[in-house]
Amino acid sequence: MLHLKTFTFNPFMENTYILYNNSKEAIIFDPGCYENHEKKELDDFISQEKLLVRMLINTHCHIDHVLGNAYVKRKYKVPFLIHKKELPVLKSVFTYASNYGFPAYEEAEPDDFLDENTDLLLGTAIIKMLFVPGHAPGHLVFYHENSKICIAGDTLFQGSIGRTDLPGGDHQTLLNAIKKEMFSLPEDTKIYPGHGPMTTIGYEKEYNPFVGKRAGF
User: Fold this and answer.
1) Taking all residues of the chain, what is their mean pLDDT, rounded to a whole number?
2) Any idea which of 18-32, 146-160, 201-215 has the lowest mean pLDDT?
3) How many Cα atoms are found within 13 Å in the side-chain-facing hemisphere of 212?
4) Which domain, by its residues, includes 202?
5) What are 55's strand-pairing partners?
């Protein structure tokens, strides 16, 4: 069984997640921690739960999801993984971080690339990777069947979808990918998005105004 802890960091109100198993092995997804008090909140939970962080992963590499990458990689001495198509997105953050109010942003180099055609392991738990581009060119979604957990990044939100007007975005691509990849998951799958509250596949299939039944998609 896997467990999930949610933090909400930075002015973008970005959701950072720690996924961990009963053996206390953990993965940190999308660390948006920038201020010292945010880093401390993350560290305190890891310390209190006695977690052993195994890796750092970005679902995608927009600024609000990568602000804590360098800190986490340095603090926990773990490999940093992204999809290869996100590398240019990651590299571009340094060029505009100050304009967004993050002058102390530190770059972090990925150690390896994730392939959506393979599975991710946390202990003995198999985590499936779904390729859901459209918001970002190499956006990955992470799904654990037994726990009914889906870490969705900025693909599917409660009553919404990720914006597609940023470089590398495409509206129809995102709609198609959600329909093909995410809506193939069981309806009781819990969607943990990059912003806002948790939702479910069943609810979004029915009510989402962009990809739900009522949208006629």
Assistant:
1) 97
2) 201-215
3) 18
4) 2-215
5) 27
Give the pTM.
0.97
CA nearest neighbour of 153 among 73, 85, 217, 57: 57
Given pLDDT bands bounded at 50, 70 and 90, which one contains residue 217? Answer: low
Residue range 186-207: mean pLDDT, rounded: 98
The confidence score (pLDDT) of residue 34 equals 98
Closest CA to 16 of 155, 193, 145: 193
Segment 146-159 mean pLDDT:
98
Separation between Cα atoms, residue 135 and residue 155, nearest integer Å? 7
| Count of C-beta atoms within a 10 Å radius of residue 213 | 11
Confidence at 213, pLDDT banded by 50, 70, 90: confident
Encoding tokens for residue 157? Answer: 């939100």
Domain tally, the chain: 1
Amino acid (one-letter) located at 176:
N
The CATH number for 75's domain is 3.60.15.10
What percentage of the chain has pLDDT greater than the value 90? 97
Burial of 121 (0-12, 13-18, 19+ CB in 10 A): exposed
